[in-house]
Design brief:
Layout (H helix, E strand, L loop, with lengths): L6 H24 L4 H12 L18 H9 L1 H34 L5 H13 L2 H14 L7 H8 L3 H10 L4 H9 L4 H12 L1 H16 L3 H6 L8 H4 L8 H33 L4
Helix pairs in contact: 1-14, 3-14, 4-7, 4-8, 4-11, 8-11, 8-14, 11-14
Amino acid sequence: MKRRAHPFFWLLLAALALLVWGPLWFMAGGSLMPLDELDTLLGPVLTGRAGSAAWTLLPSWPTLEPLAQLLLDTPEFFVMFWNTCAQVMPQVLGQFLVGAPAAWALSRLRFRGRGALTALYMALMLLPFQVTMVPSYLVLYRLGLMDTVWAIILPGAFSAFPVFIMARGFDAVPRALLEAASLDGAGNFTIFWRVGLPLGAPGILAALVLGFLEAWNAVEQPMVFLKDQSIWPLALYLPRINAENLGLCMAASLMMLAPAALIFLFGQKYLELGIQASGVKE
């Protein structure tokens, strides 16, 4: 007989869900509130006016004015939105083109120094941006790539984290299948293309989803490497919005969250499959 979970367990899960959904509800509700209501509720906190802040679950009179102002009267939002796409998509493509072959080599090929190279990848993956910032800055400066989109694209495309995730996915590919393909006359590239990529797709897609989310929300890299505001991404646009225009802040935050949320919803099953595949051992 299946044992039912204790009601306290469900209450705990509900409380945790509210902690996660609370900021999203706050943002979505704020983007539909009239400006005078937002100013009344949050003005004492953001503008320093005397009084205490408050919040309501639903707007008293929903309006699309903040979204209309963002989409119709704020051209710099669209410029920085497309700047973000132009910086993120090449990074994700580069992570696939560079990371998948590297992960296959680390997972399935046997060569001298493989253990040391794997350890190096793991060390690079664990290093935060604050540690690699100065070396990256010096390299990009010497190459003349500072203040260009390539200063963001190239470091992201050659990131070590996707390689580690993809390699764990390739580890789940049965070795007997690879040996059978080799006996049939398939070379290393054919095995990688015809067998490795299809069977390692969950790990690859999981790495690409995580890479997209990281690149989309990156703040420190553009702040350090990009001085020209015309090529700034959305992550640097949001702090520039005047705090007095609360509706525009809420609408811009919601629009920036939408692509990342959609990618996560699309890639959630691949993240789960990638985690499951990484735990499979032959």
